[in-house]
């Protein structure tokens, strides 16, 4: 057992605690929910949390906001006041993240998440919308646009995942993720302390800026909600088999596409943004100097202005 614990510490990048209990949803919701929080009960046992700026307004253009791995809809907060005046913003917490509750058995494959998003849009009565996705949320956004092009008006990709990353460090991390999600380790890792992984992810995502103490504490607590660590391990297990971007498919997305990338992104190579730009015929690329992986947190005025310009063009 001690040898295995040492192995896990090396895989997770440092010392870890393996017996950290879940936190109670009721207390976390009191501390971290929003005035605009809502929930959907989906058929697959998911209690989906989403933020809706104008739930009763059927006339405003709808913009769906999808976050990435190990964060939640909080990453869109700086854009809320900048865009909600003109658009109906719907920011979704993906299964295993934020205040969305899902069965621990939720597979967390990209296909399962796209299916969940499709069901949520149907239940919300949203027939047409624009999609903005960050990181893994970007992967989900372009995947949903390919799966249901008739529903998507415009596509916004911010530091979007999707292309194979051949960097040796990335391949090493992906192998570790697959091992951590494997069945033999699950009993040990079911209650691992996610604080170290969450903190490191936020620091890397915001570099060269530093995450606030409040942002770190929020995500430390949310990661310990019941089922979240199981789903994170499921996501880790399936990540290497995720669908990759294919130019032959992306070329059929003729809708307006905005691609935003930071030139200091430590997680997604800038070349990947250029690949999306070359693959989609109606795409525009904006590279933000000095920005990292989550520019909506560090350059919200610029990001909001670019999104607004994309949504207003040719209307």
UniProtKB/TrEMBL annotation:
GO molecular function: catalytic activity
InterPro entries per the UniProt record, alphabetical: AB_hydrolase_1, AB_hydrolase_fold, AB_hydrolase_sf, Epox_hydrolase-like
Limits of the AB hydrolase-1 domain: 63-305
Bilayer-crossing regions: none
GO cellular component terms given for this protein: membrane
Protein name per the record: Pimeloyl-ACP methyl ester carboxylesterase
Source organism: Kushneria sinocarnis
Coiled coil: none
């Amino acid at each position: 057992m001690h040898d295995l614990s040492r192995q896990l510490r090396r895989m997770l990048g440092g010392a870890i605690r393996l017996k950290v209990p879940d936190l109670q949803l009721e207390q976390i919701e009191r501390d971290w929910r929003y005035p605009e929080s809502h929930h959907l009960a989906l058929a697959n046992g998911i209690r989906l949390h989403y933020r809706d700026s104008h739930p009763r307004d059927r006339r405003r253009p709808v913009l769906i906001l999808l976050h990435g791995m190990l964060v939640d809809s909080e990453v869109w907060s700086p854009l809320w006041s900048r865009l909600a005046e003109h658009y109906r913003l719907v920011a979704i917490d993906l299964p295993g993240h934020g205040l969305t509750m899902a069965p621990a058995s939720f597979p967390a494959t990209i296909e399962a998440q796209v299916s969940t998003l499709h069901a949520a849009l149907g239940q919300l009565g949203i027939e047409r919308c624009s999609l903005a996705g960050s990181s893994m949320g970007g992967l989900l956004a372009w995947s949903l646009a390919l799966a249901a092009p008739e529903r998507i008006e415009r596509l916004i990709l911010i530091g979007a995942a999707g292309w194979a990353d051949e960097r040796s460090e990335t391949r090493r991390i992906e192998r570790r993720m697959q091992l951590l999600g494997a069945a033999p380790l699950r009993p040990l890792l079911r209650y691992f302390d996610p604080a170290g992984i969450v903190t490191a992810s936020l620091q890397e995502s915001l570099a060269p800026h530093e995450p606030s103490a409040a942002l770190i504490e929020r995500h430390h607590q949310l990661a310990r909600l019941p089922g979240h660590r199981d789903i994170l391990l499921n996501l880790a297990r399936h990540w290497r088999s995720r669908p990759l971007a294919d130019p032959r498919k992306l070329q059929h997305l003729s809708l307006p596409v905005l691609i935003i990338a930071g030139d200091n992104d430590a997680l997604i190579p800038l070349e990947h943004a250029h690949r999306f730009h070359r693959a989609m015929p109606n795409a525009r690329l904006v590279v933000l100097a000095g920005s990292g992986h989550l520019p909506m947190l560090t350059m919200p005025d610029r990001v909001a202005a670019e999104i607004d310009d994309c949504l207003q063009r040719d209307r």
